[in-house]
Amino acid sequence: MRFEPIGIIHSPFTTTEGMPIQPAGARDVRGTVEIDPRYRDGLADLDGFSHLILLYHFHRSEGFALKVVPFMDTAERGLFATRAPRRPNPIGLSVVALEKVADGVLHIRGVDVLDGTPLVDIKPWVPAFDQPADVRTGWLEETAGGVGKKRADERFL
Amino acid sequence: MRFEPIGIIHSPFTTTEGMPIQPAGARDVRGTVEIDPRYRDGLADLDGFSHLILLYHFHRSEGFALKVVPFMDTAERGLFATRAPRRPNPIGLSVVALEKVADGVLHIRGVDVLDGTPLVDIKPWVPAFDQPADVRTGWLEETAGGVGKKRADERFL
Q1: CA–CA distances in Å: residue B19 to residues A92, B63, B79, B89, B108
Q2: Which homologous superfamily is A7-144 in?
Q3: Tell me, what's the ipTM?
Q4: pLDDT tens, A49-71?
Q5: How far is B70 from chain A (nearest CA, A)?
Q6: Chain A residues with CB-CB distance to B2 below 8 A
């Protein structure tokens, strides 16, 4: 599978040190997504949605480890039970708020990615598709409520 | 960006004709995800989570169109405001329920993908990360409640 960036995400974060680790910790952080002019016709109707799923390339991550100590924990966990960036296929996923679309640029809120991150896809966030009921969150059960206060460091570079 | 499958999704659907178009229409449909033995150590701790985000390759889609008539509508919409499979980077995303993990195989419920679909990544679904508040869903506002009854056809092949 070969994929190409369809745009670039701009954020205030130039290093992972101190960066929020999920949009929940970055609710007021604004950023933009500059869509490649070739793909801008595909942005029609997007402005009706309040939230988007961004898929992007963890372009600063190299290699992967199948066991990691995530930012949210002190114990080692299976990689696929975490959102850590060093993955066999280093694709990141963030749910962000869409404030407006103008001239091929998405203005977003809740940005938890590095400035310059290559965008792979955009999907509208739809409760009927993306919001399950009766959710359990395993090792995160006790800690996820505090994700807003957690910050990244350099451990995954 | 070059990605490789980390597993294969098995479902009862061998053609898109009549397939549910989102897990919401496939809540009782069971399937399995067979993880490549090289990556099975990364499944540790996954069984604590009730729901997963699967990222997969729309391997039967060719090319893309920036305007599409989605299954959920009769009007043409911008591609990125839809979940249609013919995308510049044909990556699909489904939120599914995890029933158990055994011998490197995930047993899942709510499968809306074709049998044999290559898996790209697994992420735990976490409300603090993936469930925004005050959601609007644009053109889907009136139709998404009925997604459970919608079925796919061959339009995106």
Answers
A1: 28, 21, 20, 22, 16
A2: YaeB-like (2.40.30.70)
A3: 0.90
A4: 999 999 999 999 999 999 999 87
A5: 12
A6: 1-3
